Amino acid sequence: MGQVSLRVAKARAMVGRFGFPWQAAPVPTGVAPAPSTRQLGADYDTAWARRYPARLARAALLEGVMRPTMSAIASPDRRGLDRLDDLNGPVVFVANHHSHADTPLLLTSIPEPWRYRVVVGAAADYFFGNRFSGAVSALAIGAVPIERTRVGRRSADMARDLIDDGWSVLLYPEGGRSPDGWGQEFRGGAAFLAIRCGVPVVPIHLQGTGRILRKGRTLPRPSRTTVTFGDPLRADNDENARAFAGRLQAAVAALGDEATSDWWQARRRAHAGTSPGLTGPDFGAWRRAWVLGDRNRGIRRKRPRWPEL
Amino acid sequence: MSNGRHLAPRPGFVLDVDRNSPPIVFHHGEGFRMEKLPAGRSRVIYPAEPLEGLADPDGAIRHALDNPIGDSEPLRALLHAGMKLTVAFDDISLPLPPMRRPDIRQRVIEAVLDLAAEAGVDDVHLIAALAIHRRMTEDELRHAVGDRVYDAFAPDGRLYNHDAEDPDGMVVLGETPHGEDVQFSRRAAESDLVVYVNINLVAMDGGHKSTATGLSGYTGLRHHHNVHTMQSSRSFMDQESSALHASNWRMGKVIRDAGVKIFQIETTVNNDTFGREGPLALLQKREWEWSTRDRMQFLAMKAGLDVMPSSAKRKVFSSWQAPYALTSVQAGEVEAVHEVTTANVYRQHLVPVEGQTDVLTMGLPYICPYNVNSIMNPILVMCLGLGYFFNLYRGRPLVREGGVLIMSHPTAWEFHPVHHPSYIDFFEQVLADTTDPVEIERKYEKQFAEDEWYIHLYRNSYAYHGVHPFYMWYWGSHALQHLGRVVVVGGDPAAVRRMGFQPASTLQDALEMASDVVGPQPTVTHIKNPPILMADVS
What we know:
The complex is a heterodimer. Chain A has 11 helices and 7 strands.
């Protein structure tokens, strides 16, 4: 490591001998340096990733790498795609969020014509913290930076412009991956965007991705997954973003119920207002984990009843 | 639709054939023939182009359920917790060919069940109303009702095929003033509400026929599925002049008087049988509007089909699913609903035609209501030509009394052993004796209808009921009575002769044979179907 630093320093010194314009001119004394042009976080410009060469590369990556990988490790069961049959134009896809596997799974599940014309709202502070991860995210999944730690117009305006240009947007309204396997309350951003642009929202429920690569894990573990697409929803005339976000959350929860029981039972509970919530019961941590275990009883790993001594 | 442009759909029309008219494409089973019709005395009836589908089918369905027609409350008001609800729906015979997903039945059934869920209805059964047709397989049921409904109801036996031979599952509700027994599904009869989900492909479908036939059995069907009824119908596609429908309407009244409440949901689809794009799109274009690409595609397709074995061709054609679009949906009281439905069917199908003809020609396609995912055997060829296509008229038959019908179909001596076991015996045993429908009905019907083995296969395998081939033959009895001769072009001579028809190698030969009956230089009319049309003959 030390050897490398030494060589870099020597190379810089060699170039430095030639001076400007081979190297940047120093800021004169007494002059205020220009503001940094380094654009990271929410300022990262992803327009290049939506030009044809990048889209072509992304499509190749999607079909050549992500799809076989997802088939191998996620064995996805995709349901409800027929609910999108009457849908045209750009839409906002919203899904619950458990894992880094969610995005590739969704990108391989979203049908055409949206599949190759969708951008993914990604946390500006996490995915666009440096140029490398920003470029990889933008190229591989068509990520666009979304502010989640502070309120700003830039993300919202950019998403609106993209929808106006005919792009669909995939958002995780929970704001991040689930910390404990249960969902989190939906924030209002996706609902606000849909209302502002007058586009429908397609709720999607993901089941099982948390078992593949939950938050905190680095290596994926194969597991079965279910992707359930719901009926497109539109905001009512005088519905505000908060109320619409609540409706989206309820729709995703009902889809979760459909994935774990069946459509009829899920509809009955949805109408009765008794669908199992996305966020789980309001218990202490261990009891929440306990209930989640009950819910996923079928996929618990078998362990020996008594350790071999 | 023409040349790929999305213009207002053009109505059907009659082309007078002259020397400049191109050869006409005839359907010929799993293939096609190009036929040149005699100039100056021939005409071709072209179907209307597909009407535009409803922009928001699900919204239209919900609106229909909330705004019923006739003496009916909205479906929402008819549903309540603790009730017994039965949802019956049309079987595999509709639509033809099967439509692309999502099937209309799925859309409607999901909307109905969503309201039932909202009302807290627990006791729900879904029945494929197939009368004495073959049972639908899991795959076919999934296609019709969708995976969501199938997975929710089928595993515990709440979604199933109607069984007309279940002694405990059928009940006789009464008798019509004409002495007709009204047999009905016991589950439906004992329900607080029966919701019927229909697809109206042709004017014959729907109305009281949906339940009075679909949920009935041999005891009830024999009163209208018989030679007398068929020969008294002018035609059975025109319910105003159909004895078949009159009988079903009488039975519908008995069902209603017995206290069975029916909420009828009827839908119509457009004529988009072969799609506006894709390999078969040229079949719904007029020949002179084919592009270079269409012509090359047709030549390649025909060359390929000519060398393919019949099983491979059947597989290719069976895989086609029509992109039908919903053109109307109406719900409520049966008769009021059906009136609107019929008007919508006519809006798509009716083509005005002036006068009758000496010779009627038709190219029969690969599919009819009874060979979906199966083989079109000779009896079904007869039923499609002399039953369905011949009867697609209002007013008068297209061909004059004593005229000749020329059908184009391979008519292979081939039967599906699982789906059509009784057809084999009918063809080998009954038709070898006589082809007269009256004689067949008198001598053989009861024996086949009550045969234990056929009943076993109908109930436990995927076989049409033992009596079904008889009904197919009766379906053509009006045409047999009306026509002077039937000629089949390109058919298996042995199979064609077995049915009492005459085989011909070419259309020119067939026309020569026809002139023996109707005289020289006969007028010829070709009904270019499918896409479906119905001739309004003045």
